[in-house]
Amino acid sequence: MTAQLNPRGDVAVLVPAAGAGVRLGPGGPKALRLLGGEPLLVHVVRRVATAPSVHTVVVAAPATEVDAVRQLLTPVAPVLVVAGGAERQASVANALAAVPSGPDIVLVHDAARALTPPALVEAVAAAVRAGHDAVIPVLPVSDTIKRVDAAGVVLTTVDRSALRAVQTPQGFRRGVLAAAHAAAGDPLTDDAGLVEQQGVPVFCVPGSEYALKVTRPFDLTLAEHLLAAGH
Fold first, then answer.
1. What is the radius of gyration, based on Cα positions, of the chain?
2. CA distances from 69 to 28, 32, 156, 179 (A)
3. What is the pTM assigned to this prediction?
4. Residue 50's pLDDT is what?
5. Which residues have CB under 8 Å from 72's CB, separation 6+?
6. Each residue of 12-58: pLDDT tens digit?
7. Secondary structure class of 184 (helix, strand, coil)
8. 104: closest CA among 72, 73, 128, 77?
9. Which of 68, 44, 57 has its CA nearest to residue 103?
């Protein structure tokens, strides 16, 4: 089976999926935890693969699970599966190295955001296509935010009007993302952060409430309810 989705697409999606998911509790790699009877990773790949501009999907799996993940995803969509690294940054770099020639837009998407709408994938890609070197989907911060000291005493209330919660997929010109990873020092969990360190402006587009990240058991419960409701 070819690992190509839309031969006319200009987008490659990287899915780092090698994390342990400690905050989610015991049960194996987070990307393979079940949501509605299927692994989170299956939901992610299925949705990403329906985005019309996606040419290639590369999954960075736990090194010991590469063959198992490949077998798991083969019935879902044509994907490339590579071994991830000890840190997310290494997993993204490994996946980026596996992208074939062709796609000039690269999106990095969390395997834990299982309900992300394909329309958000297209919106991020469209913003890169329109000329932005780096694009992130964001939501306004609705909670009051306090800055506190080490003893837990409030120092000040932060103006939330300029704050945004960042989601994925994050989109980049391929060369911009490759250069950022080549120059990376300390590992970061956010690819846009690597690009920011290179002085590249990062553009924001509206995110989606459904692109929530499954990090804790509560998140998984919420995702179960949303999935059952047809999202």
1. 17
2. 13, 9, 47, 29
3. 0.93
4. 94
5. 32, 39, 41, 42
6. 999 999 876 556 655 567 889 999 999 999 999 999 999 999 999 99
7. coil
8. 128
9. 57
